[in-house]
Specification:
This protein is an alpha/beta fold. 44% of the residues lie in helices and 15% in strands. Strands 1, 2, 3, 4, 5, 6, 7 and 8 form an eight-stranded mixed beta sheet that branches. The N and C termini lie far apart (78 Å). Bound molecules: the ligand O=c1[nH]cc([C@@H]2O[C@H](COP(=O)(O)OP(=O)(O)OP(=O)(O)O)[C@@H](O)[C@H]2O)c(=O)[nH]1. GO terms for molecular function: nucleoside triphosphate diphosphatase activity; O-methyltransferase activity; protein dimerization activity.
């Protein structure tokens, strides 16, 4: 492996080391990496017993350290760094995890436990790539994870998007038989206090050690070799010919999903192929295989063309949409909200679905960042709780349902619409929709729920995008349930708002009203048309009447 070009891949990036450890800073700067240091404020207080292994704990802590810094810098600078590196070193004796001693007695307890025995040193590392959601381009805006990096959207700030690559390294260390006197002498030197397990192998603590198996720097606090391998894995994407040689069981979850026959479905766990081993794997619950290039710019120095990440995401985007729609339709997120986390078999029982297929669906939802998989089973992620549970304040369940039931089918006819000319778009989309709406009350309601859930997210932004305070009246053409009207009325206390829509829509809009003072200034006017010109005529007549 050529190390320099790997480190060089980060040369033009704003790299931040989320660590106060002087050892980590030294190891990375000795390797030629240029970075800023922003120590993490994440409190190392994760519940150790909830992790299946000591290294899963170290990896999660490293990730939380890095994410805290990424989030904080993003909020403060309004621009996150490109890459944030977090690490956490622990000592494990059997299942017991030792971190930094809190005082001399604690150091003594730790060193006595290690005395004369072998122990493991684990360093978990997280490499967090940050990108702004408002950067345009398909690779940036469409986040469909079909391979190793699970997207971590942050719905609360709406902008910072991160992709986390995580790994750990294990080194075995054996202590000699040490006398009490020597232990206390060492403790009194002060060296143990800021070191995992209470010793520093690189200094006086080296005298306690009989042998080391594995990466020495990993014990000191940063597994440089594994880090470089990880960078190579991330920034040198597999060539197409290598991808073709990838074994069936290592193809990422979404790709395998459609190819499985029913008989295969029961035994396949898309997550399993990522487990075990130490080479670039991720901690429990995450899947990791051939990564995609994160940033085409990073590939600029290569003779190979940039990996077409965005394009491939577009190619496969429809599958991800269908996974989301299916999960919504099955009310998966509702079940997990009320009863989760649940194992796949229990989810299948509750939904009355095929166990194997359900497990696959859950795996793909986890890969897409909609679900979280822990030892206790599958649970909703923050974004799912917020937007995919059907009765939530910010639920987009209605939109998912409508897109699945109608828009999906309409879009399958897009080629026809384009081939047959401009009017065909209306022919295919508009007329069909209009006819259906007027025929079926349930369809109309479904349509209204979809628009309502989306408008709830956008209305405030639309209402406040311009200062409308000098206007006395406003109208919303095709205003559906009146969400925008309500927002306008709330924002501008003297504004009278008229909502125009089809009679069957205005008739049902009452069911979506919450009441409140501003509703007095909102009026719904039925108009039997969807053409803007007709709306305008109706508007004129309303204004004339006033
Ligand atoms: O032989 C050695 N073993 C361990 C160390 C140092 O121990 C600490 C481990 O603590 P942690 O991973 O929590 O990191 P912190 O120092 O608290 O810094 P963060 O800001 O990253 O949380 C680490 O400094 C190792 O270098 C050692 O020096 N020798």
């Amino acid at each position: 492996m050529v190390l320099c070009p790997v480190i060089g891949k980060l040369q033009h990036k704003r790299v931040v080391l989320a660590s106060a450890s002087p050892r980590r800073q030294e190891i990375l700067s000795n390797a030629g990496l240029r970075f800023e240091v922003v120590p993490s404020r994440f409190k190392e207080k994760l519940h150790k017993a909830s992790f299946a292994t000591p290294y899963a704990y170290a990896v999660e802590t490293a990730k939380q350290k890095a994410l805290e810094v990424a989030g904080r810098m993003h909020q403060k600078d309004l621009r996150a760094p490109d890459v944030v590196i977090g690490a956490d070193t622990i000592v494990a004796v059997g299942a017991m995890i030792l971190e930094k001693p809190v005082d001399k007695q604690d150091a003594y307890r730790m060193l006595s436990r290690l005395n004369g025995k072998e122990h493991s040193v684990f360093t978990g590392v997280a490499i967090v790539h940050c990108c702004s959601k408002d950067i345009s381009g398909p690779g940036r805006t469409l986040r469909l994870t079909l391979s190793s990096w699970a997207p971590r959207a942050h719905p609360t700030d709406g902008r910072l998007d991160t992709e986390v690559s995580e790994f750990y390294e294990e080194t075995t260390v054996k202590f000699s038989e040490l006398s009490e006197e020597l232990l206390w002498e060492y403790i009194n030197s002060g060296e143990p206090m800021d070191k995992a397990g209470g010793y520093g192998i690189q200094a006086l603590g080296g005298m306690l050690v009989e042998y080391v198996h594995g990466d020495f720097l990993n014990v000191v606090g940063f597994p440089l070799n594994h880090f470089c391998k990880e960078l190579a894995r991330l920034y040198y994407p597999p060539r197409p010919e290598d991808l073709r040689r990838v074994r069936h069981d290592s193809i990422p979850a979404v790709d395998t999903f459609e190819n499985l026959s029913d008989s295969e479905a029961g035994g396949s766990d898309p997550g399993q192929s990522a487990k075990g081993g130490r080479g670039g794997e991720q901690a429990d619950g995450d899947r990791s295989q051939a990564p995609r290039a994160l940033d085409a710019a990073l590939n600029g120095a290569d003779s190979r063309p940039p990996f077409p990440t965005g394009l491939l995401e577009l190619m496969d985007g429809f599958k991800a949409s269908k996974v989301l729609f299916t999960a919504c339709k099955l009310r998966l997120f509702d079940v997990l909200k009320d009863q989760g986390p649940l194992q796949a078999a229990d989810v299948a029982r509750k939904l009355s679905t095929c166990a194997g297929r359900t497990e696959q669906l859950l795996g793909v939802c986890a890969a897409l960042g909609l679900l979280e998989k822990t030892r206790r089973g599958y649970g909703n992620t923050e974004v799912a709780t917020l937007h995919l549970v059907s009765d939530g304040e910010h639920s987009l369940q209605g939109l998912a349902e409508y897109n699945d039931a109608h828009v999906w089918g309409v879009f399958t006819r897009l080629g026809l619409a384009v081939r047959e000319g401009a009017d065909q778009t209306r022919g295919v989309l508009g007329a069909m929709e209009e006819e259906r709406l007027s025929q079926n009350r349930e369809l109309t309601l479904q349509f209204m729920r979809a628009k309502h859930s989306l408008s709830k997210l956008t209305a405030h932004h639309v209402a406040t995008a311009f200062d409308l305070s000098r206007f006395a009246s406003a109208c919303d053409l095709g205003g559906c349930t009146g969400i925008l009207a309500r927002e306008l009325a709330q924002e501008y206390p003297r504004l009278q708002v008229t909502v125009f829509d089809l009679p069957e829509v205005t008739e049902l809009s009452g069911g979506f009203q919450r009441g409140g003072r501003q509703t007095e200034r909102i009026r719904f006017v039925p108009v039997r048309t969807q053409r803007v010109g007709h709306y305008l005529q109706a508007k004129q007549s309303v204004l004339r009447r006033n």
